[in-house]
Amino acid sequence: MRISDRFVRILFWSIVLLGVIDRVLILQLTIGYASDDLTVIWLAAQDYSRGIFHEPFFYGQNYGVMLEALLAAPFVALGADPIIAVPVVIAFIAMAPFWSFAFYYFLRKEYVGALLFAGLPLLLPPEHGIQYTNLNGLAVLSLFPWVQRIRNNALSAFLTGLVLTAAAAVNLNALVACAAFGTWFLFSQSKKPKLIGWAALGTVPVLAAFWSAMQFYANRPDGVMNTIFDWRFVFHAEGIPIAFGQLDAHFAWLFPIWWPNGHLVLWALVVIDIMLYRKGKMASTLGLLAALVVIVLAFGFPKTHDGTGSVFFPLSRIFLAAPLLLGWGIAQLDLQGKGRQFFVASIGPAVVICFILRFVMAPEIFASALANQDQLPLRVWPVKLIREQCTTIRESAIESEAEVVVFLRVPDPQFAQFMAMGCPVCEATMPPTYMADGDRRNWRRTEESTSIRSRILVVGGDPGLWNKAMEGPFRIEELREADPVIYLVHDPGVPVESMVELIQHHTAE
User: Fold this and answer.
1) Assuming Cys at both sites, which of 62, 178, 179, 315 could form a disulfide with 307, CB separation 3.0 to 4.6 Å?
2) Would you tell me how many other CB atoms lie within 10 Å of the CB of residue 151?
3) Phi, psi dihedral angles at 33 (to 5 degrees)
């Protein structure tokens, strides 16, 4: 029986609606929590909303464009709370590439591609929806299908080069998809060298901006607290067989329906590539082949092996483009006849079943991730707890008329990071914050290495440190004995950074 286009359109909008509901449910589950990295994006969104752009990348790093903060900034400027605006934006950009390709195919009346892309986020396991890191580069790729619709071929080619380069520049995990789309474009336009030239020209603005950003940090080497352009980016061929021995970890939560077997997404791409070759679609074949080559080569870089099995810092974040490529590859097959009818008839029930399973499983998965954070390089805390701690600290700062609030990394460096970055967002009247021995904000490190303050609120430190510090050269007043401990240092006569060093030196003797 032939399935009518009207039925397909109703099915498409139903799946999109389910996708919106699913995203709202997951957002409701996660919006009350934040990682210490997310507090940096809160702060950046607040800074950007005020027209303040301290650095081109993630504060303290020479990589990682904070696209989430840029997109949230207009809403923050209009009065939105960054703590709410940022996760809402992240929820949107997580869906943006899937919905973008879905609507692109829908308008072209290529309903298999439309239904597939609309349904893919729901067909993936709940962990994929819960994790919210490294989505920004893929969000840029949501522009890719639309620049192909531009009638001016030269402009379309120029924007193709610009979008693909920008996606990779924003986040290198988009490179897998960029390789596929870029190779497809080059071979589909191989008889039109002028268009390839326009595409190459489109890469120039992004490459120039990226070079300028790297020069920014090259001129300020002390501003780089974290980088990936070190041993993590040195190729080691022995990493490839190691990765092939743990493919389920590298591709966790990236294969639809059969969730425990994430590695199948890699083999599915291989099978689809073979099918495209047999159909004579060489540009698409070479595109997927290029992506597969990039995946294999990526296995040789230590950065690819930097991750965990937690949704908060997953190993599979490096290959988040895989489901997008899976959808694109299947769409290129252009299913017809019985294959098309079977797909259309089965995707609706599959999406509904997976939607229900995601709804049921997500809370337990998220709770388990929260309870098992010991091996992570970051922490995830309740936003309520962050706000409460910031309020307590602000009250002490206001009452003591402190000019700056300094957080010590002892006994808990994550606490110091949360407070230094989160409190300026949570408490508008908080004095400037500073995390001694490792603040991501180079401009704050510079300021506190030269400015002399008369009243300095210091949060953190163990009892032994403060007992000895009381006997040192500074006049120190204990303001809070309970956790977090808070002390006020009066007229140290030296900049904050020097004061902290002197206290630590004195207590070490």
Assistant:
1) 315
2) 6
3) -130, 155
370-393 b/e (C-beta count within 10 Å ≥ 16 → b) = beebeebeebbbebeebbebbebb
What is the spatial distance between Cα 185 and Cα 160, in angstroms, rounded to a whole number?
8
Q: How many residues does the chain have?
A: 509
Tell me which residue has tokens 């904050």.
496
CA distance 358 to 363: 9
Question: What is the Cα–Cα distance from 84 to 32, expressed in whole angstroms?
Answer: 9
458 in helix, strand or coil?
strand
Tell me which DSSP letter residue 432 carries. P
Closest CA to 295 of 333, 321, 334, 257: 321
Of 462, 409, 466, 456, nearest to 435 by C-alpha is 409
Strands 380-382 and 475-480: unpaired
244 vs 246: CA distance, rounded Å: 5
How far apart, in Å, do the first and last CA atoms of the chain sit? Answer: 86
Mean pLDDT along residues 259-285: 97
C-alpha–C-alpha distance, residues 460 and 457, integer Å: 10
Beta bridge partners of 405: 433, 457
| Identity of residue 306 | D
- Taking Cα atoms as reference points, which of 279, 260, 273, 254 lies closest to residue 328? 273
CB–CB of 211/224 below 8 Å? no
How far is residue 414's CA from residue 83's CA, in Å, rounded to a whole number?
18
Distances (CA, A) of 493 to 453, 454, 474: 8, 8, 9
What span, in angstroms and rounded, lies between the C-alpha atoms of 131 and 129? Answer: 6
Of residues 313, 316, 311, the one with CA closest to residue 366: 311
Whether the CB-CB separation of 157 and 199 falls below 8 Å is answered with yes
3-state secondary structure of 226: strand
Q: In what helix (H) or strand (E) does residue 135 lie, and over which residues does it extend? A: none
Instruction: Tell me the C-alpha distance between 4 and 11, whole Å.
Output: 11
276-316 pLDDT, tens digit each? 999 999 999 999 999 999 999 999 999 999 999 999 999 99
Residues 6+ apart with CB under 8 A from 143: 100, 159, 163
Residue type, 362: A
pTM above 0.70, yes or no: yes
Sequence spans of domains, the chain: 5-227+234-371, 380-508
Question: Which amino acid is located at 153 in the chain?
Answer: N
- What distance in Å separates the CA atoms of residue 319 and residue 138, rounded to the nearest whole number? 11
Cβ(99)–Cβ(118) under 8 Å? Answer: yes
SS3 433: strand
* Cα pseudo-dihedral 115, 118, 121, 124, rounded to 10: -10
pLDDT digit string, tens, across residues 95-142: 999 999 999 999 999 999 999 999 999 999 999 999 988 899 999 999
What per-residue confidence (pLDDT) applies to 1? 44
Q: Which of 253-264 are b and which e, b meaning 16 or more Cβ less than 10 Å from the residue's Cβ?
A: bbbbeebeebbb
Residue 433 φ then ψ, to 5°: -105, 155
